Amino acid sequence: LFPIIPGLLSQSSETSVLGPHTAPEVEYVIFRLEGRDYVTVGSDQTDSVMEAKHAATAKNLCLKSVAREAWPLTELAGHWDSLELKLTCNGAVMQQVAVSAMLTPGQLQDFVAEHDGPDHEGRMIFSGTLETHGRFPQTDMAIEISLTDPVRGRTIRHSYTVSPMDEFFPAST
Asked: DSSP letters along 61-81, please?
């Protein structure tokens, strides 16, 4: 569980990162607006080198991409476990997982409430992620993330590009 600076949330189609060592992670995102819970799809772009040193800092070094569409959580109550998350990078499937392998929205909200208080209004909670298949390139990436509801025949998608910026004076390691 890592707090994220709110200004790092983005619905942009483009993002820049410092250096070549970042990776996206597809996650479902729950949030409460005017007392009603919603779900969408997001990506927790993270600096992988820094994550090995200090995860909380790594999580706050990159924008967090979030789709512009969301579904009311109540519409998914009877078939939550059938939802699927997917991330492609430059056309290759890097992550594909059923949400049944993750904490449920209620479990996730309870866990966050235990550590950060019970008021979920306006709070966006990223679910965490599962296994990635392969390595992400250390160059430009075209990312597509999706949350699919096969029962209702619908998908939330968000596409964006990641462009690494060169470090002019990299720190010695």
From this structure: SS-EEE-S--EEGGGGTTTGG
The 10s digit of each residue's pLDDT in 33-71 is 999 999 999 998 888 888 889 888 888 888 899 999 999
Cβ contact 56:13 at 8 Å: no
- pTM for the whole structure: 0.89
The gap between the terminal CA atoms of the chain, to the nearest Å, is: 27
At 71, which amino acid appears?
W
E-state strands within 1-136:
9-10, 14-18, 22-23, 26-33, 36-44, 46-47, 64-66, 71-72, 84-89, 92-98, 124-126
How far is the CA of 10 from the CAs of 42, 92, 110, in angstroms?
A: 9, 23, 25
Sign of CA dihedral 161, 127, 92, 148: negative
Nearest to 44, CA basis, from 10, 83, 89, 14: 10
Nearest to 124 by CA among 38, 35, 13: 38
Q: How many CB atoms are located within 10 Å of the residue 26 CB?
A: 28
Q: What is the pLDDT of residue 137?
A: 73
